[in-house]
Amino acid sequence: MPLTDVDKNHVKSIWSKASGKAEELGAQALARMLEAFPNTKTYFSHYSDLSVKSAQVHVHGKKIFDALTDAVSHIDDITGAMSALSTKHANTLKVDPANFKILSHTILVVLALYFPADFTPEVHLACDKFLAAVSYALAEKYR
Questions:
Q1: What are the b/e assignments for 103-138, b being 16+ CB within 10 Å?
Q2: CA 8, CA 35: separation in Å to the nearest integer?
Q3: What share of residues in the chain are helix, strand, coil (percent, to 5)?
Q4: What is the CB neighbour count within 10 angstroms for residue 73?
Q5: For the Globin domain, which residue ranges apply (predicted)?
Q6: d(CA 81, CA 62)
Q7: Residue 59: its pLDDT value, please?
Q8: What is the dihedral of CA 85, 90, 95, 99, to 10 degrees?
Q9: One pLDDT digit (tens) per residue for the chain, 143 residues
Q10: Cα separations (Å) of 101 from 5, 9, 117, 131?
Q11: Half-sphere exposure of 13 (CA within 13 A, CB side)
């Protein structure tokens, strides 16, 4: 389902708040995924600590949120913005693309927890559509 102009505005609005907390939110989302979906830990077996307190989780969580910030800034060409990451995840890291949807879910949870007043049903829907578009773009090189 394509993002409408209203959806794009909702995503940009909440992301203007989220991007300033990229490391914290990213670590929360990543740690939640690793805890709630243990099968995702296989991609992080080289990490010594998979908790939200882990420096490695913080670094990677920030990378995730920085990439999403880039996708927001290229919201009209998410596939193009995510092309290099798609190639890396498909060819080098060999991440199961189903994990992109799992991480999207934990990102939504974290946004709702950190910004409850802003995370209206309309914003939730817009963010869900945006993250689905990002997941689809990241899976592009698998096709």
A1: bbbbbbebbeebbeeebeeebeebbbbbbebbbbbb
A2: 31
A3: 75, 0, 25
A4: 12
A5: 2-143
A6: 17
A7: 96
A8: 70
A9: 799 999 999 999 999 999 999 999 999 999 999 999 999 999 998 898 999 999 999 999 999 999 999 999 999 999 999 999 999 998 898 999 999 999 999 999 999 999 999 999 999 999 999 999 999 999 998 86
A10: 23, 22, 24, 8
A11: 16
pLDDT for 45 equals 87
Q: Are 142 and 95 in contact (CB under 8 A)?
A: no
Q: Which amino acid is at 17?
A: K
Give the Cα separation of 74 and 102 in Å (integer).
22
State how many domains the chain has.
Answer: 1
Tokens 């996708």, residue?
71
Tokens coding 128: 């869900």
- Number of residues that make up the chain: 143
CATH number at residue 56: 1.10.490.10
What pTM does this model have? 0.94
**Which amino acid, residue 96?**
D
Q: Which domain covers residue 29, as residue numbers?
A: 5-142
Contact 6, 123 (CB under 8 A): no
